[in-house]
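chain below, 493 aa
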Amino acid sequence: MAGAEAPCGLRDELLCSICLSLYQEPVSPGCEHFFCRRCIAEHWRRQEAQAAPARDCPECRRSWAEPRLAPSLKLANIVERFAAFPLDALLLRAAPRRDRDRDPASARACAKEHGRVQLFCLSDRALVCFFCDEPALHEQHQVTGLDDAFEELQRELKEQLQTLQDSERGHTEALALLQHQLAETKSSAKSLRTTIGEAFERLHRLLRERQKAMLEELEADTARTLTDIEQKIQRYSQQLRKVQEGSQILQERLAEVDKHAFLAGIASLSERLKGKIHETNLTYEDFPTSKYTGPLQYTIWKSLFQDIHPVPAALTLDPATAHQRLILSDDCTIVAYGNLHPQPLQDSPKRFDVEVSVLGSEAFGSGVHYWEVVVSEKTQWMIGLAHEAVTRKGNIQIQPSRGFYCIVMHDGNQYSACTEPWTRLNVKSKLEKVGVFLDCDRGLLIFYNADDMSWLYTFREKFPGKLCSYFSPGQSHANGKNVQPLRINTVRI
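prediction:
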């Protein structure tokens, strides 16, 4: 067998020419050919039955009168190694191209000069020498020829390269996005620092103005009170001197022991006492300390309230848009679902006919606005904004692409933003009051827990056209659930 023989040629060398199978106990009758011990013995028994004078080799026809079979342990080991490799058919396909068609560097010579390595174990990712490597090591492995292994690994590596290239593009795009977000965040933070600074500076300015006004008022009250007191002191001091003079006159008259003189002076006594007797009718006005004590911070806050913007607006509901099942209060600030028959309201393009909804009367097209809605004790509601021209007939999908920007309470205790799909909100405790802030110019709609002004959700949109506040109290149930109304919270100072 030549060292560079292809595996299919190697197999031919390991086949018994009588049974055409791999050698079983290979033996030689004395020439260069080998046969299975059983096969050559059977061949010779047939010759003996035919009374042949000698025993011959089926290959070269050399004959012997008394042949002796010589076993070949080396050949038996080779056959055993060959048979131990899995996928015998694979070995038949593992033959490389002829040497003239191959790059000499594409095959590796075995260290023991067994020729070029012809097999590759895909499981171990290793070249396999048929003669050197233990077959048992690869018994359950995927073994193939070099050409097939080359093509398979080329395919795998190309797939990995494609995956890496896709990952590279993804990471490049992600980094570009992150760089954009980094710059945008820095810019937003700078803008927000300015906004916060301006808001607090306005409050500081208002506080300083209130402080100055209050101190000026205190000074005026103090000056007025002090002047009044000083004038009274001067007046009462003068009266006191006259009273003291009258007292002295009376004491002198009472000290007269001569009856004739005492009585003679009585006539002039009244004249001398004129202007000397004054009643003490002092009216004392307390200094107005109550104006500057008590719940001073609350008093200041209430005085500031008129200058703070925005504050909860006194919105009203538009009855022309209300579903027939909805009942509005007289002042159009409360809406509830009615379990009785629908109200006999005239239908119009403005009115919702399926969704139990109602819009606010005012449409917002610019500026900043804020309002609050009381939602306590309800198990279902939806509030937010809607485009002025939204569809109001039939079943409506409440989502931004349809012109609605809302949050919803559903299933009794779940809160979501009506995005596509819905976004679950992280609400730690049941909402009692919801704040809605709209900045038309910046395209911001922000929802808050109005009790502590904690953030709930933000819509960032380029709002086309004007927007109206949107309210849906949801349907109430016969078991008494969700019967409470939605109420616009108006802060009165």
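The first helix runs from residue 7 to 13. The chain has a mean pLDDT of 83.
thats it, cya
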